[in-house]
Amino acid sequence: MALLITDECINCDVCEPVCPNGAISMGPDIYEIDPPKCTECVGHFDTPQCVEVCPVACIPKDPAHPETHQQLLGSFWFCRKECDVNVIVSCVGRVGKHQAHYSLAQHLLYSLHLLDLMKKDG
Ligand code: SF4
Ligand code: SF4
Asked: Is there an atom of ligand 1 within 6 Å of 75 CB?
């Protein structure tokens, strides 16, 4: 589940630089969180860093964006490792003679990486 900044925000600026995903930015009136970018810090830290630093405790979970831990981990992986996976896949793709092989290899490698990360995360 992504987090949400409520209108109790006092625009103190301390949460923006601690977000590892660049999900926080200044909105028209107060700071805002871009839900697709917020992984609740899963994959980076044990706790949401913006919540840790906010002096007025105005960053609850956003009920409009419910996600399981595994989904958050998948988002982290997709954002952070997509480039690495694409490099590997492009190498495998050159070996394959047909586009179908390339696509199959892409899915296989991506699944293996996700499984590996999930195992490590416990
Ligand atoms: S919980 Fe983490 S990823 Fe989400 S907005 Fe806060 S600092 Fe960024
Ligand atoms: S830390 Fe809290 S009060 Fe400060 S800008 Fe972020 S959400 Fe607003």
From this structure: no
